[in-house]
């Protein structure tokens, strides 16, 4: 089971943002106390994410939720996600926030899974790592969705890892690579040292200077292969991570080139996956059920 993306107070804040002064339409129609039933299901193929948060959100409003699929589950069209019952006001209150959480997160998870599957078809042990370039304010959602798709966080923030960019090195232009690595080891002895490079020669220089990971930024697969071959004898322990422009369409090529990590931002801009919602009186909602195309209700 994946860790929770949101604490209870964060879910409450999402609800308050959507419904700051009550649901005006439900109140004006006088249907708030009517018994209701709501179902969520996949409208098309998707890798599910944040269904647990959606269920908790509805439950915090007083709804009773039956969660049928957890984050990381691959769903087909018509597969059930959750059923909720309670007063109509409660279900209308939680409906859109819960649906939107799942749709956006499942888009991230589905794209991540596509990259992971493409890469691991070639290199079963390769890691797909999501960058920290998530939509501001959406890191918690994004990271859990990435993990639901089989990815791992590259770095959650600047405080977590040592990643040396050219923008750092320009301030120490007279310091040799080995001396810079030594300075970093003394200051952060428990951290791996990652160095981003722009050429094969630069990567080889930093690898032989003692870096643990060489991040090949915007290398073509052929250049990654050349770097991996160059380091095979010179620095075999060094991990080569390919970064920049990696998605489902080229992940296999980078895996075949010998990269052990694929660093990507592609999942963060993935299109949401559609969640079908039916909300109504219990009898009407139950009559709809979860029916897969060409099949029967499970």
Describe the structure.
- With 298 residues, this protein is an alpha/beta fold.
- The protein folds into 2 domains: 8-109 and 271-288, Quinolinate phosphoribosyl transferase, N-terminal domain (Aldehyde Oxidoreductase, domain 3); 114-269, TIM Barrel, CATH 3.20.20.70.
- It is 41% helix and 19% strand.
- The strands form 3 sheets. A 7-stranded parallel beta sheet has the order 7-6-12-11-10-9-8. It has a 4-stranded antiparallel beta sheet with strand order 3-5-1-13, sandwiched between helices.
- Helix 1 crosses helix 3 and helix 4 packs across helix 5 (139-148).
- The radius of gyration is 24 Å and the shape is elongated.
- The two termini are 24 Å apart.
- Residues 290-298 have low confidence and may be disordered.
- Belongs to the NadC/ModD family.
Query: Mind describing the biggest β-sheet?
Result: 7 strands, parallel
Oligomer: single chain
Shape: elongated
Domain tally: 2
Give the % helix. Answer: 40-55%
Indicate the CATH class of the largest domain: Alpha Beta
Q: What is the radius of gyration?
A: 24 Å
Distance between the termini: 24 Å
> Could you say what the CATH architecture of the largest domain is?
Alpha-Beta Barrel
Number of strands: 13
| Structural classification | alpha/beta
CATH domain topology of the largest domain: TIM Barrel
Going across the major beta sheet, what is the strand order? Answer: 7-6-12-11-10-9-8
Unreliable spans are: 290-298
């Amino acid at each position: 089971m994946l860790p929770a993306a949101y604490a209870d107070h964060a879910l409450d804040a999402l609800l308050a943002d959507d419904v700051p002064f009550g649901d005006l339409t439900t109140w004006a129609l006088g249907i708030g106390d009517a018994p209701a039933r709501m179902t969520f299901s996949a409208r098309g193929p998707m890798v599910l994410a944040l269904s647990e948060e959606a269920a908790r959100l509805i439950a915090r409003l007083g709804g009773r939720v039956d969660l049928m699929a957890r984050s990381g589950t691959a769903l087909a069209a018509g597969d059930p996600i959750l059923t909720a019952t309670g007063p109509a006001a409660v279900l209308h209150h939680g409906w859109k926030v819960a649906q939107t959480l799942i749709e956006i997160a499942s888009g991230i998870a589905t794209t991540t899974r596509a990259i992971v599957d493409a890469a691991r078809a070639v290199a079963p042990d390769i890691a797909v790592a999501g960058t920290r370039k998530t939509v501001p304010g959406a890191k918690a959602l994004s990271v859990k969705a990435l993990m639901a798709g089989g990815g791992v966080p590259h770095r959650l923030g600047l405080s977590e890892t040592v990643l040396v960019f050219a923008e750092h090195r320009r301030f120490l232009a007279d310091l040799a690579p080995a001396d810079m690595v030594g300075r970093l080891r003394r200051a952060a002895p428990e951290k791996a040292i990652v160095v981003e490079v722009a050429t094969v020669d630069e990567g080889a220089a930093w690898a032989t200077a003692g870096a643990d990971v060489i991040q090949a930024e915007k290398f073509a697969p052929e250049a990654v292969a050349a770097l991996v071959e160059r380091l095979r004898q010179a620095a075999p322990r060094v991990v080569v991570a390919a970064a920049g422009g990696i998605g489902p369409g080229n992940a296999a090529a980078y895996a075949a080139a010998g990269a052990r990590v694929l660093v990507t931002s592609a999942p963060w801009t993935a299109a949401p996956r559609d969640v079908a919602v039916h909300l109504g009186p219990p009898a009407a909602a139950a009559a709809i059920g979860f029916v897969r195309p060409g099949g029967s209700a499970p």
